[in-house]
Design goal:
The chain is built from 13 helices and 13 strands. The protein is α/β, with parallel strands linked by helices. The radius of gyration is 21 Å and the shape is globular.
């Protein structure tokens, strides 16, 4: 069986070190090391680990002070957390269509969806490939809107040389088990706008100014704002830090697998059977996933069934949120759904993880070729 995803297997030395320190709660030794590593690597002003990317997005909604009736623009082709984090605070979700090439939000459709109630734009960097952030940022600046990057899949990816997550007012990373770098469950919020820096610490620390106290800025700490416990255990941080210090090696290994798929499947694209991922020249991706697109939903169903017979774990991805029960309740779709549903019905994600063997990649590719040759 070729698995769809496998978490990176770590040396447990740092976890054992954390346990020996008798400080395994949040913001310990390895949490701080993760913060410092990411801030330096990504040239970020401030990064804070969270218990999930979902919680990072919720923190973003809190920092932007969303109120009932406020609107936020995003693509429907994304995970529920992107929308749920804002709907949780009574925001109205406004979906716009995606680009069929990158599966990212169509930047040309954003401005027409803006109303007097719009408060933020949330671009989602699908598969670690950047949205057209220059245009997104220009629109946001023109209309005085915040930009929150959902960079859950974008750790180590760049847009015109700049790290994803650092291009908006706020950015959100995921370190879930299925991501390139993992802490089991976890995430991070990137604070690029200085106006949110102090309050981000307060929200993350149950609404207290404990972080200021620990730095000696205040002589005691107390409850000063709303908030929650968004801090992951230092054990989780140690698990993550073990990978961060090997991040370039992990990235290279995944890119090699991505390139092997791309080269091996190019003939099927030339023959018109499938479409391969598109990477715009201004984007440097992180090989978070490799996907193909087939003709339609019927063909995808047949190919996925064929994969099961061949012991290959491949999956489809998001069901567009606007078609879901919650989506119908908390959102509206602006304009026409020309590509969101159509393209999502065609997409299949292939096995991708650190250490995926060339032999397994060739087996997957040969299986796809055999499927179409026999069709």
């Amino acid at each position: 069986m070729i698995m769809f995803s496998k978490p990176f297997r770590i040396d447990t030395t740092l976890i054992e070190d954390t346990i020996k320190t008798d400080r395994i709660c949040g913001d310990g030794k390895y949490t701080n090391k993760c913060h410092q590593w990411m801030e330096e690597k990504f040239a970020a002003k401030k990064i804070l680990l969270t218990t999930s990317c979902t919680h990072a997005l919720e923190m973003a909604a809190l920092l932007l002070d969303f109120k009932e009736g406020d609107e936020v623009i995003m693509p429907s082709f994304t995970f529920s957390s992107t929308a749920n984090a804002f709907a949780l605070f009574s925001a109205k979700i406004v979906f716009v269509d995606i680009r069929p090439d990158t599966m990212n939000i169509n930047e040309e459709l954003i401005e027409a969806a803006i109303t007097p109630r719009t408060k933020a734009i949330v671009p989602v960097h699908y598969a670690g490939v950047a949205c057209e952030m220059d245009i997104v940022s220009e629109i946001a600046k023109k209309h005085d809107l915040a930009v929150v990057e959902d960079a859950a899949q974008g750790v180590m990816s760049r847009y015109k040389g700049k790290a994803l997550g650092t291009l908006g007012d706020l950015g959100c990373f995921s370190f879930h088990e299925t991501k390139n770098y993992t802490m089991g469950e976890g995430g991070a919020i990137v604070i690029n706008n200085e106006r949110y820096m102090e309050r981000s610490e307060i929200l993350r620390e149950k609404g207290t100014n404990r972080s200021l106290f620990l730095r000696g800025v205040v002589d005691k700490y107390t409850w000063v704002d709303i908030g929650s416990s968004y801090l992951p255990s230092d054990i989780n941080a140690a698990y993550l830090y073990t990978q961060l210090i090997q991040a370039d090696e992990i990235n290279t290994n995944r890119l090699n697998s991505w390139n092997a798929y791309n080269e091996r499947l190019s003939d099927l694209q030339q023959r018109g059977f499938i479409e391969l991922p598109v990477i715009p020249p201004e984007c440097t991706h992180n090989a978070h996933m490799y996907y193909i697109k087939v003709k339609n939903l019927t063909e995808r169903t047949k190919l996925l069934s064929y994969f099961k017979k061949k012991s290959i774990c491949a999956v489809f991805h998001y069901v567009p949120l606007h078609s879901s029960p919650a989506g119908k309740k908390y959102s509206r779709f602006f304009g026409q759904d020309n590509f969101t549903t159509k393209e999502s019905n065609r997409l299949i994600r292939l096995p991708m993880y650190y250490g995926l063997s060339v032999t397994d990649i060739e087996y997957v590719c040969d299986s796809i070729t055999n499927f179409f040759d026999k069709a």
